[in-house]
Specification:
By secondary structure, the chain is mostly helical. A two-stranded antiparallel sheet has the order 1-2. Helix 2 crosses helix 3 and helix 3 packs across helix 4. The longest helix has 22 residues.
């Protein structure tokens, strides 16, 4: 998590948790450094849960730091990853509600082992529709 130019050109380092997450993976190893853009592809194409965790840890921590008044609070690396993931999921749920996904609640960034994850077909369809519209607008 070192260098930031624009969001997708940010370099992100894979944590131990990301490198050992179960399920489908992009085969990241602890300490691997990739651009956020590459991690996004690694999350989408092979359904890389390891890449999803990396993105959630990094961007969740940025969102968390932006939300607190004292952004210079020292946290160690382990705390940073844990806080980042939790805050990312919190923001994900907030944004889902704003988008009208009223029956969707996320529990973690991968969907693995989620006891609390809920959704329904209407929310899933709306999510796909909204995502598709964003992709088309950017092209």
């Amino acid at each position: 998590c070192v260098q930031e130019t624009d969001t997708m050109q940010t370099y992100i380092t894979a944590s131990q948790l990301a490198a050992t997450i179960e399920g489908t993976r992009a085969e990241l190893r602890e300490g691997d450094v990739l651009l956020a853009h590459a991690l996004l592809y690694a999350m989408i194409l092979p359904s890389g849960n390891d890449a999803a965790v990396c993105l959630a840890e990094y961007f969740g921590m940025l969102l968390y730091r932006d939300s607190i008044s004292n952004a210079k609070n020292p946290v160690d690396e382990i705390q940073s990853f844990m806080i980042g993931r939790k805050f990312f999921v919190h923001q994900l749920n907030k944004n889902a509600k704003k988008l009208g996904l009223v029956h969707t609640k996320f529990d973690n960034p991968t969907g693995l082992g989620c006891l609390l994850y809920t959704s329904d077909a209407a929310d899933e369809g709306l999510g796909v529709d909204l995502g598709g519209r964003r992709i088309i607008k950017k092209k």
